[in-house]
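Internal tracking record. Fields below are filled automatically when a chain is submitted to the structure queue. Please do not edit lines marked as system-generated. If the sequence contains nonstandard residues, flag them in the REMARKS field before resubmitting.
Queue: standard
Priority: normal
Entity type: single polypeptide chain
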Amino acid sequence: MARYALTCALIALASLSISGSTLGGTLQVSAGKSKVVIVELLNGKQRPDGTLRGQFRLLLDDVGTDTGTTEIRPQLGATATVGGQQQQQVAGNDTFTGKKGTLGITLRGVGVAIQNFDPTKLGYDNEFGTWKVAEGTGLYKGWHGGGRWALVGGPTVNNIEWDGTVTH
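SYSTEM-GENERATED OUTPUT FOLLOWS
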């Protein structure tokens, strides 16, 4: 009977803990290594200062952690033909400003332009590469790590997913 009561108490405590983190409570992140996924939606039109702006959603260990705005500053490099395909080097910085802090990352990768079937319409972009944490404030202060990213872009929007691990 005492074991049953202890089990019920632990389940109730876990339920309160989970609901606190998902219903607007402060998510407590323990020190260690965590899986991170950032899903980003950018306006496909580059601003005069060279940036693209949009919004993001960040998941830490598969739990919704933060949302906010993002600004990416891509730097396009040399183009080379690889196996008959034109590829362009891509680098840059992305800043995620959320309710729980700011996370800055650096990125490197390769981009491939994909022609539209209809030659009178704009084509698409496919980019992929690696990223690493550059700086952070708030929840992201002291984060280290990185991972891989992939982008699918069109004339009006770019969708990027950043997957990796961080220590905190």
